[in-house]
Amino acid sequence: QVQLVESGGGLVQPGGSLRLPCVASGNIFIVLDMGWYRQAPGKQRELVAAITSGGTANYADAVKGRFTISRDNAKNTVYLQMNSLKPEDTAVYYCNVQGLTRDHYRFDVWGQGTQVTVSS
Predict the structure, then answer these.
(1) How far apart are CA 83 and CA 73, in angstroms?
(2) pLDDT value of residue 16
(3) Residue 29's pLDDT is what?
(4) Is 40 helix (H, G, I), strand (E, B) or coil?
């Protein structure tokens, strides 16, 4: 079984910054794609940013130039650095990790979510 633990959410003023880490642990042989999604009230969950095992990143248009996704493969951790935050970034942010277990089964797991609120 693979578990994800997210942290780093909170209340921040417009223009501020937050960094969200997400740590994967458990029966992991290798971590493949990692990503961050968000869901605002009344809206569908949407991709914010994703990064492959080779380090290639892609971003939603709404966050390009403001958010940066990165990963530490030795720690099975993915980070989302969020700068120049706007009220419309307010949402619950979810981490998603895909990979293979030690017995070579594919896993695709979600974190519990962390609330990010951007407000003055």
Answers:
(1) 23
(2) 98
(3) 96
(4) coil
